[in-house]
Amino acid sequence: MMRIRKKFLFYILGLSSAIIAASGTTVDTYVSSFIRNPWALCLSIFLMGSIVTTILTLLLSIPLNGKAIGSRIDPSFNGVRLLRKKEIKYHIVAGIGNAITTLAYFYIIWLYNNPFTPATILAFSQIVIIYLLAIESITEKNAPTLAEVESATIVSFGAVLASISLKGGINALGIAIVFLVLNPSWALFSIYQRKLKLLKINGCYNDAINIRFWNILFTTFFTIIAIVLVDHFTGENYFNAAINAFSHWQLLALSMAIAFFSYVLYIRALGLGKASVTQAVKSSTIIFSIPFSFVLAGITGGTIFESSLHALIKIMGIVLVILGVLSFALTEVRGYIFINVKPGYSVRKMIEEIWKIKGVTSVAAIAGSYDIIAKVRIRSLGKGYERIVRVLEGIKEIENFKWHSILREWEEV
Amino acid sequence: MIKAYILILTYVGNLKSVLKELEKLENIDSIAVIAGDYDIIVKASVNNLEELMELTDKIHAIKGIKRTNTQVVEKEIEI
Fold first, then answer.
1. Which H helix or E strand runs over B41?
2. Does position A143 have pLDDT exceeding 70, yes or no?
3. Could you tell me the CA-to-CA distances from A99 to A23, A138, A250, A256, A276 in Å, in that order?
4. For A239-257, b where at least 16 C-beta lie within 10 A, e where not — what string?
5. What is the DSSP string of A221-263?
6. 3-state secondary structure of A385
7. What is the pLDDT of residues B39-64, one digit of tens each?
8. Any residues with CB less than 8 A from the CB of A162 and at least 6 apart, and which?
9. Beta-strand pair A333-341/A372-378
10. DSSP string across A183-217
11. How far away is chain B from the Cα of A355, in angstroms, using its nearest Cα?
12. For A87-142, what is each residue's pLDDT tens digit?
């Protein structure tokens, strides 16, 4: 065990996941140039993914010095385990989300019929950060602040510019698939993986390795159903095509092994930050994919920059992504509030009332010189006054409270 | 499992050395430097009150600490 600043850990996990994902993107592009059919590619990737993920999860379950090897990647991991009842509904939604996302992703690659041109339309999948922000503002306690909306917009637009291609076309069908299928299913996938990570199993937070393991099994199951239906209605035999695609098993296995480690780190990061912010950090994959793209260009004979204008647009996009991620990292204020409740009022009711305040991340009833300690996380002190201090001042049961801003924090990981 | 917040006030100029000593202790979930009536807030998880006493004893033994105030958690809700 080590103690590290939580914010650092979050960015280390997010960026590490992005670097690994960048190498995976290169392999995926390479694979899709061999297996052209999107349905066959999608199914073969998940079938191979199930095998690779199972092997990796079992290897990481081997105990070493009394602890599973995988606990070095996620300290909550104690070995592969069966699903708990409360996890199943989340895994069903995350599995469906992942299956639809991947099918839509490969369908777009197929639709644009060339591994290099789908980049124009796929660039708009980066807008998923804004989808996540919108979903969080509806479903979670933490509505986005102006600073978060600004940062998310900067990262999203930067990511679109950094990943766009000037060669590919944009049409209504492509845009509709990205905005109505790919992005919503991706957002669903991220939100439900986060919900899984925040679930407590035997008193500890759920571990990222089991989440990824079960997600792949559920996703493969839903992909099989989707392909069987497609085969049934179109009269094609994509299922067999997927099995035949196993002739490229080495590439498929490499792609899914990379995806495994990238997702495990991403899921861990999801447990520490909001899904939108985690996705924003993950979008730096675009920056890290550049050196890998150089390697791929060397192998396939392609180019990274289509023209000097394309290079300029890409660089501007990268600058925006870096600025957006930095502004996410720098605009956060945390604090503890010590509260005394007037005699005769229920502390139990008060902690429930304080828990409802936006920005409160934990609240505890305590025995000591104070009655309640609340921990808050907001984007600015001004927001803290508006959203928290003014609300507390309005609660008549509170005798007094003291705000202590956190200047620096370390947490056990 | 018993959780507790330990509020620490240090003598001026001793914050860094106190933090260094706190980092060596077991059973601590988080350490935060705060601005207000106290300088440091430590969140600890122990198995029983005996262990909490051992931990607070170790904290009291750190040079540079002026006062501590231990608050035992009765009920907690967190994200």
1. strand B40-46
2. no
3. 21, 24, 22, 14, 20
4. bebbeebeebeebbbbbbb
5. HHHHHHHHHHHHHH---HHHHHHHGGGGHHHHHHHHHHHHHHH
6. helix
7. 999 999 999 999 999 999 999 999 99
8. A286, A287, A314, A317, A318, A320, A321
9. antiparallel
10. HHHHHHHHHHHHHHHHSEETTEEPPHHHHHHHHHH
11. 7
12. 999 999 999 999 999 888 888 877 776 555 666 777 788 888 889 888 887 776 65
Chain B CB within 8 Å of residue A66 CB:
no
Beta strands in A130-179 (DSSP E): none
| Helix A146-163 vs helix A275-282: crossing angle, to nearest 10 | 30
Q: How many CB atoms lie within 10 A of CB A331?
A: 17
Q: If you search the block for the tokens 């009842």, which residue do you land on?
A: A85
Q: Which of A8, A139, A274, A336 would you mutate first to test chain B, the one with the most B CBs within 10 A?
A: A336
pLDDT band at A413 (very low <50, low <70, confident <90, very high): low
- CB spacing of A336 vs B41 below 8 angstroms: yes
Structure-token match 């069987």, residue found: A228
CA distance A311 to B63: 58
**Structural contact between residues A165 and A63, judged by C-beta atoms closer than 8 angstroms:** no
